[in-house]
Amino acid sequence: MAHALLPLGSLPENWQRWKADCWLSPEPFDGTAVRKSTDPFPLEEEWQWEYDYYDHDEHSPLLHGIYQKGSVLLGGNRDCEFWVLVVTGPQRGRVWWLGGGCVAPYTDAGEECEPEADFVAWFQDWQADRGWWSEHLDG
Predict the structure, then answer these.
(1) Which of 59, 80, 58, 62 is nearest to 70 (CA)?
(2) How far apart are CA 17 and CA 13, in angstroms?
(3) Which three-class secondary structure state does DSSP give residue 69?
(4) 3-state class of 66 per DSSP?
């Protein structure tokens, strides 16, 4: 496995300096801001903002909230791509992938693609280096 899990509460080195290709908010991403894991995670389903971002007043706070609220960082597999464990709200206990232009809940890498895969399913796939990310790792 090319990338290790982060110690709880840590931020990866690339968190503070990343530049997503599809970051549409007029406010730049602030990787030094304190993450608010007790605030609700703002989504319940996948969002591809590279296709669905049309109103700064509506979408900019949501975009920033995805990266700063209701989750703890688990690690990442490339620059600008991170895994988080949601710790508040309806998605609590689920792992989400944050990537340039899209955010989505993890689905099991098994044959049936379990849509309600939880942290344990994600962790087992991560440890076994099985899943779509294993084919796309840098380094």
Answers:
(1) 62
(2) 8
(3) strand
(4) helix
Q: What is the pLDDT along the chain (139 residues), one digit of tens a residue?
A: 346 788 888 888 778 766 666 677 888 888 888 999 999 999 999 999 888 888 888 888 998 999 999 999 998 767 678 899 999 999 999 999 998 788 999 885 555 555 667 888 888 888 887 766 665 554 4
The encoded tokens of residue 76 equal 């990442």
Residue with tokens 């309806």: 90
- Calculate the alpha carbon distances from 68 to 37, 71, 102, 115 in Å: 7, 7, 15, 24
Nearest alpha-carbon partner for 42 in 60, 57, 56: 60
Look at residue 13 in the predicted model and tell me its pLDDT: 77
How far apart, in whole angstroms, are the C-alpha atoms of residue 40 and residue 87?
A: 8
Distances (CA, A) of 112 to 50, 52, 89, 107, 117: 28, 29, 26, 10, 11
Helix, coil or strand: residue 45: coil
| Coil vs helix vs strand at 119 | helix
Specify the pTM.
0.83
Other beta carbons less than 10 A from residue 117's beta carbon: 19
